[in-house]
Design a protein that fits this description.
Length: 323
C-alpha cells in the first residue's frame, strides 16, 4: 500500500498535512455578543442573523440551541443549499433551504468578503451576522452556542436550564476536547485522509473513543450525569449523521451506532427531546455529503438507506430524569 499522499484527492488541499491527514483550519471571526454589551455587541432581538446548513454537524449545534432556547423570534436564520460546488455554499430557495432576507446574498462567500475583503480561507457555516455593523460576528460554532446559551437569556422563551453552567464548565470542556478530537473531527479525519496510515490512525482513535463513550453511558443517562449539557448536543450532531453518512461515505465502518446499545439509546433519547427532531434533516444531510465531495464519491449517487428508527423507545429513563 503506497504511503504517498494523494493531494489531488484531498477535499481541502490547504488543510492537508504531509502525512496525508486532515487538519481543520481555525475559525477567524471570533467576536462575542454579550448580555451586558461590554463587548460592544449587545444581545438584542432582531439584530443578529444565523447562516446555517442543516447538513453540517457544526452548524446543526446552533440550530438546536436556537430552537431549544426559543430564540426563533429574536435571531433570524438562513438555511443554505445543502449541495455545495466550487463556489462554496449557495443561498437560494429550495426544498428545506431558504433565501437571505437580510443581505440578499446568493453565496455565503459574500458575507465573508464584505466582512474581510482579504479573507482567503474556507467559507464555512455557521455564521453569526450582525445587521448593525454589517459584519460577521463569529464563525465558530462552539463559541456561538455558548452565546446563545448564556447571553440571550433576556430574549429566550426558554432561558433555563443552561447547557453549560459555570460549575460544570471545566468538565464539559474536558469531555468536549476528547469528543472533538476523536469523534466530531475524527470522522472527518477518517473521511478526508489521503493515505492508508492517516486513515487507520483516525479510524482506531474514533472507535476507541466510541468504546469509551459507550462505557461512560452505561450508568449515566447523559455524558455529565442526569442532566443534558453542551457536551451532549456536541456529540449528538455527529452521532445522528454516523449511520446514514459516516459509515459509508467516510469509511467509519467498524461498527455502526445501532451496534452500540448505550450510544444508540442515548442518540434516540436526545433525538426525542421536544423540538430536536425538527432540526434533523436527513435529506439535506445525505445530499450534502454524497453530492459535495466528488473525490470521495465521484458518481454523486446518494444511497437510499439505511433504515433508521430514531423514534423507537430509548429505554434510558431508569438512568435519571431528563431536565
Ligand atoms: N470550526 C468550524 C467548522 C465549521 C465547518 O467546517 N463547516 C463546514 C460544513 S460541515 C463548512 O462550512 N465547510 C465549507 C467548505 O468545506 O467549503 C465550526 O465549528 O464552526
Amino acid at each position: 500500500m503506497t504511503e504517498q499522499p494523494g493531494p489531488t484527492a484531498a477535499p481541502f488541499p490547504k488543510e492537508l498535512e504531509v502525512d496525508g491527514s486532515f487538519r481543520r483550519q481555525e475559525s477567524v471571526f471570533r467576536d462575542h455578543v454579550t448580555a451586558d454589551g461590554s463587548s460592544g455587541l449587545p444581545a438584542a432581538a432582531g439584530r443578529y442573523h444565523l447562516y446555517v446548513s442543516l447538513a453540517c454537524p457544526w452548524a446543526h449545534r446552533t440550530v438546536i440551541y436556537r430552537r431549544l432556547r426559543g430564540l426563533e423570534d429574536a435571531i433570524s436564520m438562513t438555511i443554505v443549499d445543502p449541495e455545495r460546488d466550487e463556489r462554496g455554499w449557495a443561498i437560494a430557495e429550495g426544498p428545506g433551504n431558504t433565501p437571505d432576507p437580510v443581505n440578499g446574498f446568493t453565496f455565503l462567500s459574500e458575507a465573508y468578503r464584505s466582512s474581510d475583503p482579504g479573507f482567503d480561507g474556507r467559507v464555512t457555516v455557521p455564521v453569526l451576522w450582525d445587521r448593525v455593523t454589517g459584519r460577521i460576528v463569529n464563525n465558530e460554532s462552539s463559541e456561538i452556542i455558548r452565546m446563545l446559551d448564556r447571553e440571550f437569556a433576556a430574549f429566550a422563551k426558554h432561558p433555563e436550564p443552561v447547557f453549560c453552567p459555570p460549575e460544570l464548565e471545566a468538565e464539559i470542556d474536558a469531555v468536549n476536547t476528547f469528543v472533538y478530537d476523536n469523534v466530531n473531527n475524527g470522522v472527518y479525519r477518517c473521511g478526508f485522509a489521503v493515505t492508508q496510515r492517516a486513515y487507520e490512525r483516525a479510524f482506531h482513535a474514533l472507535f476507541d473513543a466510541l468504546d469509551v463513550l459507550e462505557r461512560r453511558l452505561a450508568d449515566r443517562r447523559y455524558l455529565l450525569g442526569a442532566r443534558i449539557t453542551e457536551a451532549d448536543w456536541r456529540l449528538f450532531t455527529t452521532l445522528v449523521r454516523f449511520d446514514p453518512v459516516y459509515v459509508g461515505h467516510f469509511k467509519c465502518n467498524l461498527r455502526r451506532i445501532v451496534d452500540h446499545p448505550n450510544l444508540n439509546g442515548y442518540l434516540r433519547d436526545l433525538y426525542q427531546r421536544p423540538g430536536v427532531a425538527g432540526t434533523v434533516d436527513l435529506d439535506h444531510i445525505k445530499r450534502h455529503y454524497y453530492r459535495t465531495h466528488p473525490t470521495i464519491n465521484p458518481t454523486r449517487i446518494v444511497p437510499l438507506g439505511p433504515a433508521m428508527d430514531l423514534e423507537a423507545p430509548h429505554g434510558r429513563e431508569g438512568l435519571g430524569d431528563a431536565p
